[in-house]
Amino acid sequence: MNFRFLSKTALFRGCSEEDIEVMENHLDFKTLKYKKGATIISEGTIVSDIGLVLSGSIQMEHIDIWGNKSILGVVNVGGVFAEAYACIPGEPMMIDVIANEDAEILFVSVPKIFTPCSVCNNQSRLIQNLVKISAMKNLQLSRRALHTSPKTVRGRLLSYFSHQVLMQGSRKIRIPFDRQQLADYLNLDRSALSKELGKMKKDGLIEYRKNEFEIKAEL
What is the pLDDT of residues 51-63, one digit of tens each? Predict the structure, then answer.
């Protein structure tokens, strides 16, 4: 187990490598590997573990009864997922968690995080970190709601690109989605998305290649 890496993640921030090594047994650490496209957690599953991405990335998605897929977010190396469901006993997952690429996941028992341990140090720090992560995830969901609220395809793209420029501090941005994933994230038809991107390029608003974009005009 790479305790140095874990000490740099949001979940274990503020904990020393020695702290985490002591916590390993108490928190029931276990690691599993998944191939790209594999289902890590299915909708309807009741979970008690939080997942931490050690390598690769995962995406959270929802498919309705008509087969329409919405991507709710992507979690990269060092990020966590399923924390909200693991913190509420008996609450079934409302989403699927899928390996976006080959991935290795560390699972940590949330009930054990909240169970006092006489041996573990900095367990309170872990709880604080978990609360901060949950709050950040709520902000991310609110942000997606803002991006999908405009009625037009261009409006949704402008909202998303504006936020990425702000977050990345540059008009040259790299997004974590391919075309289909971006369409799913913004609740758009892929062909409509591609068509609008072409129009925005023609209008001199953007230049792009794959998932790299340059914003050429004021949004």
Answer: 999 999 999 999 8
